[in-house]
Amino acid sequence: MKTAIISSDTSINHLTGDGHPEQPKRVLAIKEKLKKHKNLIWDKPSTFDHDILKKAHNENYIDMVKKSFPNEGIKFLDGDTIISPGSKDATIDAVGSVIKAIDGVENKKFKNAFCAVRPPGHHAEKDKAMGFCIYNNCAVAAHYLIDKFNYKRVAIFDPDVHHGNGTQDIFYDNKNVLYLSTHQYPFYPGTGSDKEKGNHDNIFNVPLPAGTNTEEYLSALDKVLDKLAKFRPEFLIFSMGFDANIADPLAQFELQSEDFYEITKRTLKATNEFTKGKVISVLEGGYDLNALAQSAFNHVNALSENKT
Predict the structure, then answer these.
(1) Dihedral through CA 10, CA 14, CA 17, CA 19, nearest 10?
(2) What is the pLDDT of residues 95-138, one digit of tens each?
(3) Is 162 a catalytic residue?
(4) H or E segment at 302?
(5) pTM above 0.90, yes or no
(6) Total structural domains in the chain?
(7) Which among 18, 51, 85, 201 is placed 20 to 30 Å from 262, CA to CA?
(8) Is residue 308 part of a domain?
(9) In contact, 43 and 100? CB cutoff 8 Å
(10) Which of the following is catalytic: 122, 123, 183, 299?
(11) What is the pLDDT of residues 56-71, one digit of tens each?
């Protein structure tokens, strides 16, 4: 079986205004680079029952989002999170992409999947848009795995340089989900201390200082992999930001593009015994277009090479 790339044509219609770092060119750059990879399946998002959104977000928030999309121009959901008329379909198709990815893995249509989506999701809390994020795509994915496929142990690993406060918020009291994050700290959004552990010891934060390089990061990654192995996840979700790259304009980590191959490969090796290779990856951050595209290409290479 092959690795699938799930992405929607609507992602480029989510317009955020001139100069905004979370721009349509992000997904275009990734897809252009991945076209050079000849061993992939390309697929589109599914339609899905929108009730699954209520597992990750409260109903009032979902209703607010639905009513917020403007008929023209742009609108701010918070100081960073901008929506336009095209955001309505893009936001739903981002969720539909993770649903298609899970269904494809479960039905053995493909080995694993990378969802090249926007808007991203990991800052979106139960009842709040934040940090470019509207719906928490990975959180919806985890709930879908639990609700539809009866998984008891789902792991979400988030190597984005910013802490995924939203994912942590949604799963803080959920024993079936282990959320693990490596991130720059102290930094936006201000959460992510190693003292934030969840009500079931199911939150595992590894805060790292600005200037963290490859060697330092990979050493810290060992702590994540140890925690993952103890949890024995049945399914793994990468909440995959690439903004820890040294070229990224929004943060101060010093990882190289090739490091994302190594991070992915080591994580898969540590979890394959438990997941049997059941993995999806969902795009979060990454704002230098060249670095983003190359880092994503390396990440997908590791996914496509994975053997269980």
Answers:
(1) -80
(2) 999 999 999 999 999 999 999 999 999 999 999 999 999 999 99
(3) no
(4) helix 289-305
(5) yes
(6) 1
(7) 201
(8) no
(9) yes
(10) 123
(11) 999 999 999 999 999 9
* Residue 8, domain extent: 3-303
- Written as one letter, the residue type at 73 is G
Read off the CATH number of the domain in which 71 is found: 3.40.800.20
The answer as to whether 52 is a domain residue is yes
Write the DSSP string, 102-156: HHHHHTTSSSEEEE--SS--TT-BTTB-BTTBSS-HHHHHHHHHHHHH--S-EEE
> What DSSP letter does each residue of 254-267 carry, written as one string?
BB-TTHHHHHHHHH
- The whole-angstrom separation of Cα 139 and Cα 94 is 12
Residue type, 228: L
CA dihedral 216, 239, 113, 5 (to 10 degrees): -100
Residue type, 197: K
d(CA 247, CA 244): 8
DSSP state of 51: G
Tokens for 144? Answer: 């879908």
One-character DSSP codes across 70-88: -SSS-EESSSS-EE-TTHH
| Reported confidence tier of residue 197, pLDDT bands at 50, 70, 90 | very high
Rounded to whole angstroms, how far apart are CA atoms 170 and 153? 16
